[in-house]
Write a structure and sequence with these properties.
33% of the residues lie in helices and 20% in strands. It is α/β, with parallel strands linked by helices. A hairpin with a 2-residue loop joins strand 3 (41-45) and strand 4. 50% of the residues are buried. The structure holds guanosine-5'-diphosphate, 6-O-phosphoryl inosine monophosphate and magnesium ion (MG). Guanosine-5'-diphosphate is lined by residues 8, 12-18, 40-42, 44, 293-294, 298, 329-330, 332-333, 412-415, 419. 6-O-phosphoryl inosine monophosphate binds next to helix 4.
């Protein structure tokens, strides 16, 4: 049975955690493919709300193997803590496999992240300050440490000594930052590595073996395709590829092993941090969407910027990622609005444009061409069958499908696990 990719179609926080969790119970495996603890994936269950940063969102499904793929950058101390917190809440974490090839985020990476943001002055990227960019930079510069290196007691300490020494010089001389306490951090890192060691393995073989056995494998991306390092709004992006191609690379699977690419999109848009956002709302409507959607960051608690659905950006994401179906989340947040606007086109300096500008200075000047849709002004949160959705809500969903070029297969009507409605088919068939 081939693999299913779950990716964010916008700027992150689309509800990937909830959708992955919904698919996980009927899948053999969930593999996290990219990013690090910049991610925050929320799963709301009767046992409480879980916020995953590094652990795949399949961990709440007993019997589902969870894999952290080679494309992820892992803060070992944070991962050890996240696992402990899950165990403290009664979650069985034994079915976890951590790729020995995944790179490690070290304490100086977040200090460099902070230093870089400071040097950017008035226009910082607004990173999560989790050291993600500097960790990926070290990886591609071939001076990174991988989980396997950290867990190898013959080399870990001398390598950490060398790295701390070099980066502390950089921190004090170039970034004018405090140095990291190498001695205490080394002990904490070695301690974390010891606790993670039982889970470390050849993740790509574990994933391929599951595919060979005919199990369904869900590949969970973090972030969103509009934050992609190559095709997002550079430099206001993250440092990995939260795309279908990136999912394959990060999870260790081949493109022809994938038969389903689920693009998770909010029924409107949100973005955290700086960067172009043509359909952004600065008015009372924006404020109301933020409050109704509880749009505050899972990882940093920052208020998210919100706006209308942007179908130009969405169409690009659908095309570049081969999105086969859309999971449209947070539809219930729009229950209170009439009309609802949809970003149907872009205008740059008075002329309509078809593409997403490459220069962020151009993208910043883009004005959205908004088209109104009728609001349904009904509470959708108790609806579980597609046919029970208000006809105006169904019209909105169909319009999103037509504008983006991919059909909407499921709709989120609330944060809870069961607040998921299939469109057209039985929900069991959709989350199979
Ligand atoms: P992720 O990073 O893509 O997993 O998304 P986040 O967890 O960061 O943010 C999504 C937020 O929306 C979380 O607070 C979810 O609990 C919540 N959520 C997910 N789906 C729905 C939905 O359909 N309706 C509502 N109201 N909230 C949702
Ligand atoms: P999930 O997986 C939303 C954003 C940051 C910043 C930019 C770069 O929960 O959807 P980074 O720390 O990655 O160098 O920050 O990317 N960003 C996210 N925004 N959701 C996320 O993850 C994000 N991960 C990074 O806010 O604008
Ligand atoms: Mg999130």
């Amino acid at each position: 049975m081939p693999a299913t990719i779950v990716l964010g179609g916008q700027w992150g926080d689309e509800g990937k955690g909830k959708i992955t969790d919904a698919l996980a119970s009927s899948s053999g495996m969930v593999v996290r493919a990219n990013g690090g603890s910049n991610a925050g994936h929320t799963i709301s269950t009767p046992q409480g709300v879980f916020k995953m940063h590094l652990v795949p969102s399949g961990i709440l499904s007993p019997g589902t193997t969870c894999v952290i793929g080679a494309g992820v950058v892992i803060d070992p101390i944070q991962l050890a803590q996240e696992l402990q917190e899950l165990r403290d809440r009664g979650i069985d974490t034994s079915a976890l496999v951590i790729s020995d090839r995944a790179h490690v985020v070290l304490p100086y990476h977040s200090e460099i992240d902070r230093g870089e943001e400071r040097l950017r002055g008035e226009v910082p990227i607004g990173t999560t300050l989790r050291g993600i960019g500097p960790a990926y930079a070290d990886k591609v510069s071939r001076r990174g440490m991988r989980i396997a290196d950290l867990c190898d007691e013959r080399t870990a300490r001398p390598e950490l000594d060398r790295s701390f020494d070099a980066r502390n010089k950089l921190l004090s001389a170039y970034y004018e930052s405090e140095e990291v306490d190498a001695v205490s951090m080394t002990e904490q890192l070695i301690g974390a590595a010891e606790s993670l060691w039982p889970f470390v393995g050849h993740a790509e073989d574990v994933v391929q073996d599951a595919l060979d056995r005919g199990e369904r494998v869900i590949v969970e991306c973090a972030q969103g395709a509009m934050l992609d390092i190559d095709y997002g709004s550079y430099p206001f992006v993250t440092s990995s590829s939260p795309t279908a191609a990136g999912a394959c690379q990060g999870a260790g699977i081949a493109p022809n092993q994938v038969d389903r690419v689920i693009g998770v999109f909010k029924a409107y848009s949100s973005r955290v941090g700086s960067g172009p956002f043509p359909t952004e709302l600065f008015d009372e409507t924006g404020h109301e969407i933020r409050e109704r959607g509880r749009e505050y960051g899972t990882t940093t608690g920052r208020p998210r910027r919100v706006g209308w659905f942007d179908s130009v950006a969405a169409r690009r994401v659908v095309r570049l990622n081969g999105v086969t179906e859309i999971a449209l989340t947070l539809l219930d947040v729009l229950d209170g609005f009439d009309p609802i606007q949809v970003g149907a086109g872009y205008e740059l300096d008075g002329a309509a444009i078809e593409h997403v500008p490459t220069l962020s200075t151009d993208y910043d000047r883009v004005k959205p061409i908004l088209a109104p849709a009728e609001g349904w002004l009904e509470d959708t949160t108790a609806i579980r069958e597609g046919q029970d959705l208000p006809s105006k809500a169904r019209a909105y969903i169909d319009r999103i499908g037509a504008l983006t070029g991919a059909p909407v297969s499921m709709v989120g009507v609330g944060p809870d696990r069961d607040q998921l409605v299939s469109v057209g088919r039985d929900i069991a068939a959709v989350i199979r």
